[in-house]
Design goal:
By secondary structure, the protein is mainly beta. The two termini are 31 Å apart. The protein is built from 1 helix and 40 strands. It has one domain (2-40, 81-475): Methylamine Dehydrogenase, Chain H. The radius of gyration is 20 Å and the shape is globular. The strands form 14 sheets. It has a 4-stranded antiparallel sheet, with no helix packed on it. This is PKD domain containing protein. Residues 41-70 have a biased composition (Pro residues). Residues 21-81 are annotated as: Disordered. InterPro entries: Delta_60_rpt, WD40/YVTN_repeat-like_dom_sf. Residues 1-22 form the signal peptide.
């Protein structure tokens, strides 16, 4: 079971078409022209700059795939019928605790699968994955939940932009009972900003976001704490620095499966005095945060629309830890550019790394990614994949993949899996689990069926091989 929990949050007002939908404050970057739901803006954005002339690094060759013990399994394109619905707002994060899916975000109510009973749930709810039954979990929160994780004892860790939990002061980070919602008062970790991504390994809790301090001690956007008490690990100082346009922040992160490496993405350009453009890998096996020799210049700050202080949005490791995939926004598009793409990086070795492959949407943002081994699922408000030659248009060889897609892990090309999704602003969370792929978003349609903001694409009864889409087989269209 693997949960993709990091929440990718755009720090700006976004100029988008459709009904209003807010990204988390505080705003620092300028609007993104796009086709998703809008956030109020103070005025029209400046015309987007041309894509930088910086020559892209050539992708490294794809290593031969290890022989599979059985054919790869891809989830069905037909969602199950029993998941409940979140009736308003958006889902930012999800976590799987046993048979319970916990859902966090900005919303006020849920209904059962048949839409016969409405329950008030503000920003946090849970249901049984096996039958969709809503659980009693209810927590009184005065702000959104952006990140979720399971604590070592099975309790639930919440990250977000709230100040009160069940009437008690808890700034942006809290631990609750997942069955009842009762606040664990023994956990206390005051943060002076928002928390938008969480990861747990053993007793260690990694919390990333947009803040300056934890427990009153300087920590620019990333800290390690005790997962049960919230006590700050004072020896662990990541040293994120030189945030583009603002103080540094961690947008999302992914732990390697063995817990030894933490890869963080955000708006920083230096880490512990070393140049690291929007992505850094840490060795977290010891008492201190040690930035490794792994690096990439692919996400340089000047390579996409300059109105974005950061364009990296989501990251996930493969189950074997051999690679991770990063997804981005950035408005611009073109062969070799990092904007509005999914890109695979190998984890082995030190020094400069270039992507193994890059899949382009042609100018539409991706926010969430789940690398399952059999596929790389990506979600956002994209219309197409395999589209390096289009800019908000369908270029030669592109394939239609509205709102959600599956890519071949070895080549990066779109698989012939296309359930479709009403696009809105985009998918923000995936859970990859034995039952299938759970999807959290801000719209109410999956596979042309009503599934409001939550859905589960199940695995079929037997293993199945997914072929590339016909256009992908003909064109290749991956940088």
């Amino acid at each position: 079971m693997r949960s993709v929990l990091g929440v990718s949050l755009l720090m700006s007002s976004v100029l988008l078409a459709g009904p209003a939908a807010a990204e988390p404050p505080p705003a620092v970057a300028a609007p993104e022209p796009s086709v998703a739901a809008p956030v109020p803006s103070t005025g029209p954005p400046a015309p987007p700059p041309a894509a930088p002339a910086m020559p892209p690094a050539a992708p490294s060759p794809v290593p031969p795939a290890a022989p599979a013990a059985r054919p790869p399994r891809i989830v069905s394109t037909d969602p199950v019928d029993w998941t409940p619905h979140v009736t308003d707002g958006r889902v930012w994060a999800m976590a799987l605790l046993g048979d319970t899916v916990v859902v966090g975000g900005e919303f006020t109510a849920t209904t059962d699968a048949l839409r016969q009973a409405t329950s008030r749930r503000r920003n946090l709810m849970a249901f049984r994955l096996s039958d969709g039954q809503l659980t009693p979990l209810a927590v009184d929160l005065d702000g959104p939940v952006y990140a979720l994780a399971e604590a070592p004892d099975g309790s639930l860790l919440l990250g977000g932009d709230f100040t009160l939990v069940n009437g008690r002061q808890r700034r942006s980070l809290a631990r609750v009972d997942p069955a009842t919602g009762r606040l664990h008062r023994s956990f206390y970790a005051p943060v002076d900003g928002d928390v938008r991504t969480l990861a747990v390994h053993g007793s260690d809790l990694y919390a990333g976001g947009f803040y300056r301090s934890v427990h009153g001690l300087p920590r620019a956007g990333l800290a390690r704490l005790d997962a049960m008490s919230g006590q700050l690990d004072e020896g662990f100082e990541p040293g994120l620095a030189q945030g583009v346009g603002n103080r540094p922040r961690a947008e999302a992160m992914s732990l390697s499966p063995d817990g030894s490496r933490l890869v963080v993405i955000g708006n920083f350009t230096r880490v512990q005095g070393r140049e690291r453009h929007q992505l850094a890998e840490f060795d977290v096996t010891g008492p201190r945060a040690v930035v490794t020799g792994w690096s990439t210049a692919f996400y340089g700050a000047d390579r996409c629309d300059s109105r974005f202080d950061s364009y990296v949005r989501g990251i996930d490791h493969s189950p074997d830890g051999a690679y991770f995939v990063v997804v981005t926004t950035g408005h611009d598009s073109g062969p070799g550019l990092p904007c509005t793409t999914a890109a695979r990086f190998e984890t082995a070795g030190a020094g400069e790394h270039t992507p193994t492959w890059i899949n382009h949407t042609g100018g539409h943002s991706l926010y969430a990614v789940a690398a399952t081994g059999s596929a790389v699922y990506v979600g956002g408000h994209q219309l197409w994949q395999d589209n390096p030659y289009g800019h908000k248009t369908m270029g030669p060889g592109a394939v239609e993949r509205p709102g959600i897609a599956a890519l071949d892990p070895a080549t990066g090309r779109a698989l012939d899996w296309n359930p479709t999704r009403s696009r809105g602003e985009g998918v923000r969370a995936f859970i990859d689990c034995p039952q299938g792929l759970v999807v959290g978003s801000d719209t109410d349609e999956l596979a042309r069926e009503y599934h409001a903001r939550i859905g589960l694409f199940p695995y079929p009864p037997g293993p199945a091989v997914q072929r590339l889409s016909p256009a992908a087989e003909e064109q290749g269209n991956v940088s």
